[in-house]
Design a protein that fits this description.
The chain is an alpha+beta fold and about 450 residues long. It contains 16 helices and 17 strands. The chain has a 5-stranded antiparallel β-sheet, with helices on both faces. Strands 7-6-10-9-8 form a 5-stranded antiparallel β-sheet. A 5-stranded mixed β-sheet has the order 12-13-11-16-17.
Length: about 450
């Protein structure tokens, strides 16, 4: 091959007139089968190693058409390729399946080059290289890949490869077809545009996603995160698990799984509600209220806002129980809880912390607004009517309101609200008492 390269370079630079032509060089040095054909496709010359590479003795082929090598000499691909070269005078390159003298079939990568000279007939230079081994390995690899893809498609999660470039941009290099069946998202669309997937993260979850991914990038620790995706059928909980790999020049990749955990999260939430809910009234219990109340207070402090908290106590509840029995007392508590939830907003906290003692946290409300909401609640409770053995049972509620600033604690707020509730009881019940700055007891009886 070194001699061939040297002669090629001299030929390209325009060597001496006595130098052999390119076709002669190829006939002598090409590491495969070489044939020189006339314009009818008849073999005129072959290279010395032709029999070893093509599997046919030269004397069997010289003077015959080269398409004899094709598995279909009359209508095969070889005949069409030769015809195309003669007609267009342009090279042809492709893969041909040829038959050796022993009958075996071999894949030959083939190039046909028309040789056009000012004088003399058209010649075709044909070069073939046996790639059967590579072709068979390719087919085996495709079969293995097909089996692997079939296996991956049955895995109940979507496989992904996520890349973060040196500029911090994220892109999906791979997403398995399970993304479509599990979440209704097209893998190819999400690979073309990562925001087709990442843009569906809930806003708070997107911030956690980016923070946890950045932490994994720095520490190269395994990445795991639960987040919500907004899908056509609604919000779904997803868990991502991946292993990071640094690739140099700031490039990072994560190989992992996207797992549908929506059903598990729903079960967890149901359990959490059961654990944190008062069974009789459906209100939060004391433990759940303290957890959620601390979170609400922390949010208010971050935004520089105050938080309104109220203690509620049913008036003369012991007398109601003694007069009508505990069954009616339970009905009164249930009716009271239902009325409170109807009077409050869905995001306000409502909890039962004692027998007939309840607490309310009014989120995102100024003290004046909180007072108005609680007054509406007080009036609604006073309008409740229960029937027991032909008698109409009515009851009222007293309320104590506290307002917590950024420095306050939930415990101190409960203590302030409890003192305000005591003042409401001492002042005649069925009323609201609260901070001195607020107008107290509007509309009290």
């Amino acid at each position: 091959m070194a001699a061939f390269r040297e002669r090629w370079q001299r030929w390209w630079r325009g060597g001496a007139a006595g130098e052999p032509g390119l076709d002669a060089l190829l006939l002598e040095h090409y590491p495969g089968a070489v044939m020189l054909l006339d314009d009818q496709g008849v073999v005129r010359r072959v290279n010395p190693a032709f029999e070893r590479f093509a599997g046919h003795p030269p004397e069997q082929l010289l003077g015959r058409r080269a398409v004899t090598l094709d598995i279909d000499p009359l209508h095969g691909d070889f005949a069409r390729a030769l015809e195309q070269c003669v007609t267009t005078l342009r090279p042809w390159q492709g893969l041909l399946l040829c038959r050796r003298a022993d009958g075996s079939l071999r894949h030959q990568t083939t190039m046909i080059q028309p040789l056009v000279r000012d004088e003399g007939p058209l010649r075709l230079l044909v070069m073939q290289y046996d790639v059967t081994g590579m072709r068979e390995r390719e087919l085996r690899d495709r079969q293995l890949l097909g089996r692997l893809e079939s296996t991956v498609s049955r895995v109940p999660s979507a496989l992904f490869r996520l890349r973060q470039g040196g500029n911090g941009q994220l892109e999906f290099l791979y997403l398995s077809e399970a993304l479509r069946s599990l979440f209704g998202l097209a893998p190819e669309q999400c690979m073309d545009d990562p925001e087709a997937l990442l843009g569906r993260l809930a806003r708070d979850d997107r911030q956690r996603f980016e923070a946890s991914l950045a932490q994994s990038a720095v520490s190269l620790a395994p990445w795991q995160l639960e987040f919500r995706l907004s899908l056509p059928e609604g919000m779904r909980w997803i868990e991502a698990r991946a292993t990071p790999l640094a690739r140099g020049q700031g490039d990072l990749m994560w190989d992992g799984l996207l797992i549908d955990i929506d059903e598990r999260k729903q079960v967890e939430q149901r359990v959490q509600r059961l654990v944190g809910t008062d069974m009789l009234t459906g209100a939060l219990n004391r433990r759940a209220f303290l957890e959620q109340g601390e979170a609400a207070l922390a949010r208010a402090a971050r935004h520089g806002e105050s938080l309104s908290l109220a203690m509620l106590d049913l008036d003369h509840f012991k007398a109601l129980n003694d007069t009508y029995g505990h069954a009616v007392g339970d009905l009164a508590l249930q009716a009271f809880a239902t009325t409170c939830r109807e009077s409050l907003r869905p995001y306000d906290l409502f909890a039962r912390i004692g027998g007939e003692e309840f607490v309310v946290v009014l989120v995102d409300s100024r003290p004046e607004e909180a007072w108005s909401v609680l007054e509406r609640l007080r009036q609604a409770v006073a309008a409740i009517e229960l029937e027991s053995e032909g008698e109409v049972v009515r009851f009222t509620v007293s309320l104590g309101l506290a307002v917590l600033g950024g420095e306050g604690s939930l415990e101190s707020g409960l203590a302030q609200a409890d003192r305000a509730l005591y003042r409401a009881k001492r002042s005649g019940r069925n009323r609201i008492c609260g901070p001195e700055a607020l107008i107290q007891d509007p509309g009290a009886p």
